[in-house]
Structure prediction request, 150 residues.
Amino acid sequence: MKAKQKAIKKKAPPPASTRRRPISKPVSKVKKPAGKYGAIREGLRRQRMALLKEAGVILTKDPDGATSSDVTDQAQAEVERNFILRLKEREQRLLQKIDEAVERIDKGVFGICRSCGNEIPLPRLQARPVTDLCIECKTRQENDESIRAR
Prediction:
């Protein structure tokens, strides 16, 4: 009798299609930041996405396609176009620096001054994550540039 009760209590497992999966965290396609510079890497990723999103909005806007017969209006439109182009060039350089910084993080050389080889302090990296020079080397570089500009 007991064997019969055990057989009744034992149910066959449900088919694979109806089985419940264990609850787990969703798998993200974005590489999760890890290590000492994970938060900086994530901030760089967000900054990059914001720049690209903003660039897409500006590119989809219809620039003043209508030409004005007023010379002053034409000149103002040209000044505005040049200003936007300069901004886009700066953003393009910043995107390149962001990509290089993320690459340095991935390679494990992030936070090391490319000039002297010393470690760049974390507060400087948090303030300017795309930097690849320590404060001393950057100061020296700026002084050299100002001397050459004279």
